[in-house]
Amino acid sequence: MNIIQLCSLFSSLSFFGYVIAYFTATKMKEEFKRFNLEKIGFYIIILEFLGALGLITGLKFNLILIISSLGLTLLMLAGVVVRIKLKDSFWVSFPAIFYMVLNGLIFFASIGSYLKD
User: Alpha carbon of 69 to those of 21, 32, 33, 47, 94: distances in Å?
Assistant: First the structure.
């Protein structure tokens, strides 16, 4: 297993965990209220689930990896923007920044791999 596959697996499992937490922990739904996104929170979770599923599927099909990692990168970019608007601290914002960068790296590496083939 190479580093991109390992990163994809890690990111995917993390997002699956976030999806599960949304349905099992009230704190997650409270965060969406704090972000003023409670009306679309469910749709964001669906996008995260599809992105995580795409990262797993992308281990076999590179084009799906490209699409999924780009989608998750953009979703986390939006999360970073929301946290900046709310003036959250760096440490509170760090997970969104981390997953934005991680999925961005997966995206660029998978594009490079796709162009080689």
Answer: 21, 22, 26, 12, 18
